[in-house]
Structure to design on (137 residues):
């Protein structure tokens, strides 16, 4: 095994994750609705955040390869939990892009890149992914 990341349990439902190549770390806490303090991202928060981050990254890669100027991009993320069993049931993401005068073709390229990101393709089909795009000046 050649791990790229490690996780250490620190007690009180808190974990510290480390990205071994960079040394960057992040903390996760159990959410308040599941015995935790909710003082950091929960693992399910990270799942939803990973989806949005992957989408924006793929948009950037696609923009660079196609000569499209990508301005500021911001994503608002909502996680909807289901029960029986407890799981992420829906992920709602609004990706807001600074409009650089994109043509319909350029918008289609950017949106397709987002929708085909590896995280989106790795999530189970039972998880509803509601993704919307907004272009503003």
């Amino acid at each position: 095994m050649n791990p790229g990341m490690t996780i250490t349990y620190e007690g009180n439902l808190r974990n510290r994750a480390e990205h071994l190549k960079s040394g960057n770390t992040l903390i996760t806490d159990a959410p308040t609705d599941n015995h935790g303090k909710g003082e950091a991202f929960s693992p399910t928060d990270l799942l939803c955040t990973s989806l949005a981050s992957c989408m924006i990254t793929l948009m950037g890669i696609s923009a660079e390869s196609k000569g499209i100027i990508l301005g500021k991009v911001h994503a608002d993320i909502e996680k909807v939990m289901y029960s029986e069993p407890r799981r992420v049931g829906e992920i709602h993401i609004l990706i807001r892009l600074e409009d650089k005068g994109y043509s319909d073709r350029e918008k289609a390229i950017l949106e397709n890149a987002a929708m085909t990101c590896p995280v989106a393709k790795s999530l189970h089909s039972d998880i509803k992914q509601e993704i919307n795009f907004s272009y503003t000046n």
The two ends are 48 Å apart (CA to CA). The chain has a mean pLDDT of 97.
